[in-house]
Design goal:
14% strand, binds beta-D-glucopyranose, alpha/beta
Amino acid sequence: MRSLTKVMAVSAIAAMALAGCGRSDSGSGSGSSGSGGSDKFPKDALIGVSLPQKTSENWVLAENLFKTDLAAAGFKADVQFANGGVTEQQNQIQSMVTKGAKVIVVGAIDGSQLGTQVKAAKDSGATVIAYDRLLKNTDAVDYYVAYDNFKVGVLQGNALLDGMKKKKANGPYNIELFAGSPDDANAQVFFDGAMSVLKPKIDDGTLKVVSGQTSFNQVVTQGWKAENAQKRMDTLLSANYTSTAIDGVLSPNDTLARAIITSVKAAGKPVPIVTGQDSEVESVKSIMAGEQYSTINKDTRNLVKATIEMIQAIQKGDQPKINDTKSYNNGVKVVPAELLPPLIVTKDNAKEAYANDPTLSKITG
Ligand code: BGC
């Protein structure tokens, strides 16, 4: 997990940014009790933030940033992890509703299992924001804030091809595919984005998935757990690669990328091109050491900042910033979204990509 220093530095920057926003809004005239003007709710209202399990560093960073920056913006914050699973997350959201939270921000473990709780939130007059992961099959979700998940997958697919081409100019290339946890709505979208690039190359013979496992259901990693990816990779290697080289692996995130690399090394094979996501400290080190090929920079500071700006707009009764009204159909409605642009990072651009990140810039030098 990233250092406390980083979290504190990050929070300070975000707090400064928020303080800046506050200053430019100070003419609006409503008092801190929120009694005046056309405020939708008081400026110091309770905001609930329900986060999933700590399956990657970004969630831990988000917890710290939400706590510090919601407080810096004048709100009361109730920020919870649901390490125990879906039932715990359901109970946490219900309790935020009971405590009178005016906005509930949800990073769902399972986006399809919170319908009852978010409906209760809406019935109580709260606004529901899906954070990073979409809430599915419910109309009780107002907004979605995330990095562009399909784009993440496209960038991963392209990085896999580019990395393999650099090592060996022409195919065919032997590859394997991994996806994230099927209960996380993002996992399918990442996979679809990557397959929009890779499928045509599989069809024309440039890429060969030696195991034959190419459908989402065959390649998922339950719970985004490293041990599940490592086990599957062990099996793939012993069943298909005893006398065949593996050129590349599509990995949906950094935690799984490192597990895949561990498995390949244990089998005594050279490390293939492996993609990732999240810019986790250990993966950035691995990229700089020439092992993992790529990651994605989805700076958590910017995602939390965008979410808090959305909460501030809602508090004032304003329309929050939305830049996508078509991509995220959750099965019941198209959820208006603010999508941020993800950035691909390899050893070539790492220094530049992390220049303003106090922890990662130390690794990239
Ligand atoms: C997030 C990824 C993360 C994964 C596992 C996804 O929903 O978008 O950034 O790697 O969850 O925690």
